[in-house]
Amino acid sequence: MFYHYTGNVQFDLQINRVVSYFGNNSKVEADLRTILPHLDSIPAWNRLWKALAFKRKKSQDYDIASFYFFAAGFYLLEDNPDRELIQKERLACFYQWYDIFPYERHDVPFDDFYLPAVKLINPNAQKTLLVFAGYDSCLEELMVWVKDFRGTAYNIIIFDGPGQGNALFGGSHFMMNFERPVSAVLDYFELDRVVAWGISWGGYFVMRAAAFEKRIDKVIAMDIFYQGMDALIEGMPLLKGLALQMLLFLKRERILNRLISREMTKDLDLSWKMTRGFQLTNTKTPFALLENLSRHSMKGLGASINQEVLLLAAKNDQYVPIKRLKQLEKELHHAGKVVSRVFTDETGGNHHCQAGETHLAVKEIKAFLNEN
To answer: Domain named AB hydrolase-1: which ranges (predicted)?
Structure first.
């Protein structure tokens, strides 16, 4: 279930994301009672989750500590002195406890750096599930997301692409043409047929990759993600969103920079999207960032996707308008098969990437792959 802990939609999404793995764990519930009244700003968020993470590390609750370190580092930018420390502690705690799958860790050569990857092993598996995320995840988080694929016919390869997760610490940056890192991973593992599962912004990346990389046999978009600008303007008043798009189209750089900078002082969610985007893309101004992210678009790609496709959409997704589902279904006219599932208030899973209820999405994915 998705819980509205603070009333701040961005904070609530991230809290559900962090704690949902632990169910009704009494330690986690006690920790939440301690910090929820004080989560009123990003500095408070970072400070409180960091303190809890070290507390749980000291008590050897390494699984809880690793997720708390993930939360503590979530809003930290490159110039924050805590960033490297929290990354180091998160990884140490995570691999201290992780035992869901036997696994191998790999560094995949790509351009002039390496993409971190893991291979999760199911005995006697003959197929491969390739998994990657988008704007703000990391491969360790996804190693937990796929826990229900134990005992299936799939080995699972998860990687951080350029600008994602652990790869962001290696100096790489977000790229639109995601078929390139996907191809590098397939080459490295000598794979000629995979199912590709993209999560969040990865819902665009997986479509983009499938349009050009035909070693992808089936495509899973969790959630659908049509274009980068949607994530910025979803939830904005209609006229304000239209104005931003028009200013970008007309290249009114100075006006757009002033407008966005002013809005960032009033809107925590927008401020985080923009500052995170500067870091991911190595841009410095709102105009430069929006120009960069506007290239992340499904426009013109649908006809090149001939694989079987599963589209997962959430009615109350705070980043992706539900209207994009019909548009995608229409544009995927060469796909081998298109299966769509919409999560609502009634079904549950009606928030971005089924936050707090990811098992509902996994159930649909396993049905799509005939792995129930």
So the answer is: 146-334
The series of mean pLDDT values per 10 residues for the chain, 372 residues long, is 88 91 92 95 94 98 97 89 95 97 97 96 96 93 95 97 93 93 98 97 97 98 93 82 90 93 84 86 93 93 97 93 95 96 95 92 95 68
* Sheet strand arrangement including 308-314: 103-110, 113-120, 154-159, 127-132, 194-199, 216-222, 308-314, 337-343
Q: Do 312 and 326 reside in the same domain of the chain? A: yes
Both 308 and 173 in one domain: the answer is yes
Same-domain check for residues 109 and 136: yes
- Per the CB < 8 A criterion, the answer to whether 149 and 122 are in contact is yes
Asked whether 365 and 222 are in contact (CB, 8 A), the reply is yes
Helix axis angle for 238-249 and 286-294, nearest 10°, is: 90
Q: Judge whether 62 lies within some domain.
A: yes
Residues 179 and 194 in one domain: yes
| Domain, as residue range, for 54 | 9-97
Tokens of 50: 């960091």
139 domain-assigned? yes
Structural domain total, the chain: 3
Reported as type and span, the H/E element at residue 110 is: strand 103-110
Q: Which of these, 235, 257, 369, 356, lies nearest to 307 by C-alpha position?
A: 369
